Amino acid sequence: MERLQKIIAQSGITSRRKAEELITQGKVRVNGKIVKELGIKVNGNDIIEVEGATINRDISKVYYVLNKPRGVITSVSDDKGRKTVLDFIDTDKRIYPIGRLDYDTTGLVILTNDGDFANLLMHPSYHIPKTYIAKIEGLLNKEDIIRLKNGITIDNRQVNIIDFKIKDKNKEKQTSLIEITINEGRNHIVKKIFEKIKHPVIRLSRIKIAFLDIGNLKSGEYRELSIKEVKKFYSLK
User: Fold this and answer.
1) Catalytic one among 46, 102, 116, 213?
2) pLDDT (tens digit, 9 = 90+) per residue, 42-96?
3) Is 110 found in the same domain as 90?
4) Residue numbers of the domain that contains 115
5) Each residue of 155-198: pLDDT tens digit?
6) Are the beta carbons of 27 and 8 closer than 8 angstroms?
7) Is 102 annotated in the active site?
8) How many structural domains are present in the chain?
9) How many Å apart are CA 150 and CA 114, to the nearest integer?
10) Strand pairing partners for 5?
């Protein structure tokens, strides 16, 4: 017997967090009956339907890393007809991206049909570090550096900045290139950090999640994660 939301996530339909939302919204049936309780447990003989579709509980797991281009939506679909990250990956599996990158942000995105794996990377309690390269307006002064070292408060919550480095600065154009590592995934969080110290982001790219870096993947290219890499992520738990 296992929790319903875990079984849904393992089926590859969505993450565990989203599965919990679907349950509480009354969009899940077990043996024909709507279930809204998150604590309910099911067994291998129970028939589970999510939004009218019976889930396949015998599905192989796949894991991909993509170098997301600019102007691409980190979603499974877009009502405006824009390209999504799924357009770049050739697979017959029902995969989805873990977390989000803004439309104009490039870099590393992981996609999978493994709900437990997605939960590991997204859940704030696991503190998975993510590293970005940000091109910002202006040059950082001593006060800016001190504020970044001490942590920036965004929406009444402090962001834990694990590390940051000034990679380059252009005095003529008055711009800087900053590498910054944080361990949370709030929307637009990197942009908000630099807005707070009055150095708006011009360009942003995610280059690393935990130990996994973008490597030599060009924009729009992807590859499968190795079994070793997947196990290494699970070991972070």
Assistant:
1) 102
2) 987 888 999 988 887 666 889 999 999 999 999 988 889 899 999 999 998 889 9
3) yes
4) 63-124+213-235
5) 999 998 999 999 999 999 999 999 999 998 788 999 999 999 99
6) no
7) yes
8) 3
9) 36
10) none
